[in-house]
Structure formats: structure tokens, C-alpha cells
Specification:
Number of domains: 1
CATH class: Alpha Beta
Structural class: alpha+beta
């Protein structure tokens, strides 16, 4: 799921929201878009802001677990970095287990 604002005046937020959506579509991940600027999303938006500690910053990426709890993946910059780490050679990832990839993060969150 990702949290965005349809009323964003910051062009970078708009572009990054599109980029996040493109990544999710490209990876064939089912997702829900939540518009943080509409009144009907206020309760969920506030819950997600509490979790991310990034009030008013968009886009934000989350995974909803089977128990309906959310895991904060990150703002666009963090997600972009995780996606880029997917392209590292497997031997580099094995030698550096602290390097997280987008696929690992989404798999780990799905498993919890």
C-alpha cells in the first residue's frame, strides 16, 4: 500500500508517487493507494503517520500483514534504494547480509 496526496503542491512528491506506483505495478504487487488529503482517509493516514514518523511527507510505502497491521517500508528514497539493491549480484548480497533488497523486505513482511 502506498500513502500519497492528490493535493501535493511539491512536484517531487507527485513524481515520486508515480515512480512508486510504477515500481509496484512492474513487480506485479497488488497494492492500495490511500490519498492522505481526503477526509475519509484521515484515520488511516494518521495511523500510518504515527507508524512512519513522517507526517506530511509523501509518498510512503507500507505492507499490510495478514493481521491487518502495517509495516512501514519507507519514503520513496528508501524504497528506491531497496529496489536498486535488487540488482546487486547474488554473491555481493550473500557476502553482505545487512544489505536489504526490496524483494527481501516485501517477502519478509508477507511472511509475518
Amino acid at each position: 500500500m502506498f500513502l500519497y496526496s492528490s493535493l501535493a503542491t511539491d512536484q517531487l512528491q507527485v513524481v515520486n508517487s508515480r515512480r512508486l506506483e510504477d515500481v509496484l505495478i512492474g513487480k506485479r504487487i497488488r497494492f492500495e493507494k490511500v490519498d492522505g488529503s481526503v477526509p475519509e482517509s484521515k484515520a488511516l493516514r494518521d495511523q500510518l503517520f504515527e507508524l512512519s514518523q513522517a507526517r506530511g511527507k509523501y509518498p510512503q510505502c507500507f505492507i499490510r500483514g495478514g493481521d491487518s497491521t502495517y509495516t512501514f517500508i519507507g519514503l520513496w528514497d528508501a524504497v528506491e534504494s531497496l529496489v536498486e539493491c535488487n540488482t546487486l549480484p547474488p554473491d555481493v548480497l550473500q557476502s553482505n547480509p545487512s544489505i536489504r533488497t526490496f524483494d527481501q523486505v516485501t517477502y519478509d513482511a508477507d511472511e509475518s
